[in-house]
Amino acid sequence: MLTKRLIPCLDVRNRRVTKGVKFQNNVELGDPIEMAVGYSDGGCDELVFYDITASAEGRPIDIEMVREVAKAIRIPFAVGGGIASLDDMYDVLHAGAEKVSVNSLAVVDPELIAEGARQFGSQCIVLGMDPVKTDAPGFGSGYEITIRGFRERTGLDALDWARRAQEMGVGEVVVNSVDADGTRQGFEQELTRMVAHAVTIPVVASGGAGTIQHLIAVFEEVHADAAIIASMIHTGEYTIRQIKDGLIAAGIPIRKKW
User: What fold is seen in the domain 5-249?
Assistant: First the structure.
């Protein structure tokens, strides 16, 4: 049985890690390099960094930060934000990241996914998707994809977009619940379960983790392959080791790193 992955997320703005609730009222938490080293040494499986204002500001990602992270840690990490071309993907991967996360720009230019998969391999291309609930007709899943920091609705059904992205070569899908982000009330299980059943590539649950039980549920009941965590560890309430010990005690296959 494949082990489940635990992935701390660091949202970065102006070289500082920041976190809010439903992507509002963000507060600064610390230096991304120092936090990355702490989580890496603490036993996490991977890390993900989002330059959360790069796309909205129309600028490339902070490549120097990517280089610094690559020098400081020895685990895989993904980077997202401001990825607009194959050259941007190359720059991020050449700087030391193992994966590139595409979101808004993948919706605007879906061919970017296919080109990236052909050039660098599907294992390097991660689709980040930001669905919100909708009662509007034409959305079979009940969720619509949003882009540009949830400011713009796209008319895309979440399941249709996940399937299409897989067909175009994406190697992994991160299902980020806008409604649950930062609430620490648990993952949006219905949404994640639907995506996990709709595709055959790994699915990562994101948004809402607050307790070990939330992680047990998303692995055991929803069948997510990995889970992104943020607030529950950024606050110091839990350590990676405490979380993994709890998952192991519940029978979840997880990699122990101590």
Answer: TIM Barrel (3.20.20)
Q: Please list, in sequence order, all residues whose beta carbon lies within 8 angstroms of the beta carbon of residue 134, skipping any fewer than 6 positions away.
A: 142, 143, 144
Q: pTM score, two decimals?
A: 0.92
Which tens digit of pLDDT belongs to each residue from 87-97? Answer: 999 999 999 99
Tell me the β-bridge partners of 11.
50
CA dist 106 and 155 (Å) reads 14
Q: Of the residues 45, 88, 130, 181, which is catalytic?
A: 130
141 CB-near residues (< 8 Å, 6+ apart): 131, 157, 158, 159, 160, 191, 194
157 is catalytic: no
Encode pLDDT of 44-74 as tens digits. 999 999 988 777 777 778 899 999 999 999 9
Identified catalytic residue from 11, 51, 88, 181? 11
Residue 245 annotated as catalytic: no
